[in-house]
Amino acid sequence: MDHDKRVDKYFATRTKGQNGVLKDILWAPNNSHTIMVGDNDYLNLVHHREVLTKQAEDLMNCTVYRDTVKSSVFLSDFDPHTALEQDVGAWYGKGCYFAQSGYAANVGVMHAVCTPGMHVYVDTFLHMSFYDGLASRRAKVHAFKTNDAADLEKKIAKYGPGLIIVESVYSTSGAFAPLEDIVRVKKAHNCLLVVDESHSFGLFGTEGRGLLHVKGLVNDVDYVTVSLAKAYATRAGLVFTKHALYVKENSYPYIFSSGLVQNDIVRLRAIWEVIKAADDRRERLINVATFFRSEMNKVAKVVGGLKNTPCAIVGVLMKDEEQLASLHRFLSNKGILAAPFIAPATSPDFPILRFTVHCDISMKDAVVVTQAVKEWTLQSKASAKAKL
Predict the structure, then answer these.
(1) Are residues 270 and 149 in the same domain?
(2) Nearest residue to 183 via CA among 220, 158, 134
């Protein structure tokens, strides 16, 4: 096998510019954006002063614990890491453990739960990290139509009980899963259920406990996973389950990767305290997100046709990657930074420009963004007509 030829072929065929997706599609021409609608910091906490102060104090005064770089399996009951797991688990109502990332959390749960040949039922919009874990366990994966509990039930009736995996909020569309219906199917067919709450944890429910708490379904779900690189503005992951110790001891990412360092734990505890008291931020986010989605529906084709969902994620469906890059760069030149989503994050035929608002985006900013999208659309149509 000539590996160099395969690499050359990739760059020659992947994009028209032959420079790869990072330069030809994802690159933003402006380095001074004033409206940021392309990240996951929904509550605008990444630079929260109290959080940063506690981190800085820890770095300057860390004398009690030697900050080690080692596998999480070597943590003791006396580590700040373990103490935070116990406190967060008691607050949530399930045992828990911190993973190195949301990706590591999802892969680790698959390692612990799945066996070769196990039937696993996944929503078609499920995050790629789960597939990574499923492939390593050689599970039999059956995809069902997104948010379609009836199709899920048909698949289970055909292949038999197994594991169901859904997300409470999907990262490309902002659609909410029909969690009550999914739980009903899970119970009726004696299945296990994993729910990824990455895009709802911190944003909904009392003190931001998430949608499962809002709907009273926490005890009906076997495993809850979370990426803390969303509302919690920190690179870490979280798993809630009564089998937390079992997952730890069977998750390869947990065993074979270095755990979170103490300053990560200091940041997580500080942000957790802020988020519990952040009802005002959550309310502002829902208000601006609902308004932004309503305005975007007037000027673009929104993924799923969702009109009134109070979710900070709004995906705009593009014709192809060239059109996606055009809109992305047009907005960047106007000081607006969104997030282009292409394969493998989406279907190759349906690239998406994803907009994510945070709680401090103003209604005026929301209008500026949607009007810029409208301006690009009108210019593109005029340009296409002129070429005829």
Answers:
(1) yes
(2) 220
Regarding pTM above 0.70, the answer is: yes
**Contact in structure between 337 and 278 (CB atoms under 8 Å):** no
Q: How confident is the model at residue 383 (pLDDT cuts 50, 70, 90)?
A: confident
Partner residues linked to 165 by β-bridges: 122, 194
Residue 121, strand partner residues: 142, 164
In the predicted model, is pLDDT for residue 340 greater than 80? yes
Give the pLDDT score at 61. Answer: 84
- Report the CATH number that the domain containing residue 232 is assigned in CATH: 3.40.640.10
Choosing from 241, 276, 311, the residue where a domain stops is 276
318 within 8 A of 353, measured Cβ to Cβ = yes
Residues spanned by the domain of 366: 18-43+279-387
- pLDDT tens track for 127-149: 999 999 999 999 999 999 999 99
Helix/strand/coil for 157? helix
The last residue of a domain, from among 254, 276, 298: 276
